[in-house]
Amino acid sequence: MLCCICKEKEATVHLTQIAGDKMQKVDLCEECAKLKGVNDPTGFSLADLLLGLGASQEIEQAGGGTELKCAKCGFTQSDFKKAGRLGCPECYETFAEALEGLLKTMHKGTRHIGKAPASLRQARDLTERIKILQKRLTTAIESEDFEEAAILRDEIKQANSRLSNAV
User: Fold this and answer.
1) How far apart are CA 132 and CA 59, in angstroms?
2) What does the alpha-carbon distance between residue 75 and residue 86 come to, in Å, rounded to a whole number?
3) Distance between CA atoms of residues 106 and 32, nearest Å
């Protein structure tokens, strides 16, 4: 495969960019890659490559122009830009504002919930629903709202039935 720029030498560096449902591939020879700064460690920071170009600038802007520094390990914004990772658990607190924006663009949310099989998720959701209904039932009984309590009792029975069928 020939280099996309010089169209003379064999391409040894292959870059792929995916934006939405469009994918662009660029194949470069070693010389053209060096000219474009792809092989230059200062041309791209690891954080920019991992988190998307401009990620390190976003962290700098969140710091209000001054460079934040972790009180525990001394890790700075520059260190994050170079390494693409943080120094210690305390860094997550120090850089929280900037990281929240980055994580929201990379993931569905900022809280890791992991993955679970559909049947397990359903059982977990039903168990949580039953707990909420039981708290509401207790409140209804304490306030002597027996009509609401009867409705909640029936909902709890139905949820327990679905839970036993799901497991």
Assistant:
1) 40
2) 7
3) 30
Range 108-132 average pLDDT: 84
For 55, the token pair is 């990620």
Strand pairing category for 13-19 and 22-28: antiparallel
Distances (CA, A) of 61 to 9, 76, 100, 149: 41, 14, 13, 53
pLDDT, tens digit, 9 for 90 and up, residues 7-35: 888 888 887 766 667 777 778 788 887 77
